[in-house]
Amino acid sequence: MPLVVPGINSSMGNKTDWANKLMGKKITEASADMNSFAKRDLPESHRILRPGDMATRDHKPERLNIHLGEDDTVRDVNYG
Prior knowledge:
- This protein is mostly beta strands.
- The protein has one helix spanning 15-22; strands at 26-28, 36-38, 46-49, 64-68, 74-79.
- A hairpin with a 5-residue loop joins strand 4 (64-68) and strand 5.
- It is globular.
- It comes from Penicilliopsis zonata CBS 506.65.
């Protein structure tokens, strides 16, 4: 099986791309303005984590993790 590195030899994109698209925005069902991003436009393998949410510790390199702040805006993104 070949090595897959997100954003280098795959089409998943990279953390910087997603951070630029999402940081400071709210995730909504349908994007209504410049301060939100529609869930349907996220990669198929993603999860949204709010403060205090339980999360599995399994590592899936293709999964985009979206970390929200107390005000439900995106504070960080990473793969895993």
